[in-house]
Amino acid sequence: MNENANLQNKNDGDADIAICGAGPVGLSLAALLVKRGVPAARIALIDAKTVELARQDPRSLALSYGSSQILQAIGAWPIAATAIDQIHVSRRGHFGRTLIQRDEFRLPALGYVTRYGTLVTALAALPALQDIQLLRPLQVSASTEYDDHVELQLSDGRALHAKLLVQAEGGVFGAQSDKALQRDYQQVGIVAHVQASAPIAQRAFERFTEQGPLALLPQDDGHGNNYALVWCVRPATADNLLALDDAAFLEALMQAFGGRLGRFTRTTPRNSFPLGLNARPAASARTVAIGNAAQTLHPVAGQGLNLGLRDATVLARMLATDMSSETLLQFTAARQSDRSLTIHLTDVMARVFASAPDGALSQTLLGLSLGLVDVIKPARRLLAQQMMFGRR
């Protein structure tokens, strides 16, 4: 990419489209736009991190099969990733579970687990993106909309002028917005990588405990870890878990998850983050938000990145035809169904455990619903189709 490229004459406009955020969603949007005929030199991509810092990011990402199709279409797939052939969903200590298997859908995988750094490295290396204006490490300190363009003030003192601005920088729960749909779940997500003595190849687990979902995603990528862990609990419990030594933490994990994978034998250092919902207004006359910038979701079912890639797919298709403010409003309408359904599904599952006391009726009913999903094939297929492909 043409890092810190010389900007054009202000009267001509520096870019047709400025994308704030060079993560997986922002990079994918840029590649999709170029694929549909938008000149790479007319796209500006702004990010606060250096390329090297982004490449070293060790976070695990859950990609649906539909997301892998999007990445394949722009040449960023296959990459180093662990396939998910089965997803086992259960309720700790209660009746009710469902098992979703790839064979039922005649697919090579239900999804994949990869590293953030692996994905952004593949995207950044795409030949289609080598001529875009890449401005990093820089931040957008302010933006002003005019009738025919947006003016961005950059942290190095420069100004960038673009027809449209796409906010694709990862959102953080708690960001202020007068019209945002916000919800504090009073939960904390604990993330780590763990090893198990009896791993089940390519099976992912979503285990609902009394305090929230516990996800284990298979990840054998040469780092000596069997599973990426996301464990959602209430803040006081999180403080206690983070204070434990490794042996005590693994024992607590064993008590919460059970013995399906034998014993947990090793963990990496743990990190934590607060959980909430923050769905912001989607568009103004010259600005639109996609991915986590539009909706920061609870991690249950791992739908945040997948929803963002579907946002990028639809937006690129529409902007390649018409870069007007009317298109941004049409995009908002086109994405409402998929966004609303995904947000509703994750929000309901999160709130059942965040707001109900342990063992409450609502928690028991969720367990019973898992059992019904397992025996009613159309319900299982509908759930799986939404998680794998969404609506785009």
The coarse silhouette is elongated
Helix content: 25-40%
Mind telling me which CATH architecture this is? 3-Layer(bba) Sandwich
Strand percentage lies at 25-35%
Straight-line distance between termini: 29 Å
Q: List low-pLDDT spans.
A: 3-12, 172-178
The CATH C-level name is Alpha Beta
- Count of discrete structural domains: 1
> Oligomeric status of the shown chains?
single chain
Secondary-structure content class: alpha/beta
Give a quick account of the main beta sheet: strands, pairing sense, barrel closure.
9 strands, mixed
The CATH H-level superfamily is FAD/NAD(P)-binding domain
The CATH topology assignment is FAD/NAD(P)-binding domain
Question: How many helices in DSSP terms?
Answer: 10
| CA-atom Rg in angstroms | 21 Å
| Mean pLDDT over the full residue set | 85
Order of helices and strands: EEHEHEHEEEEHEEEEEEEEHHEEEEHHHH
Tell me the number of strands. 20
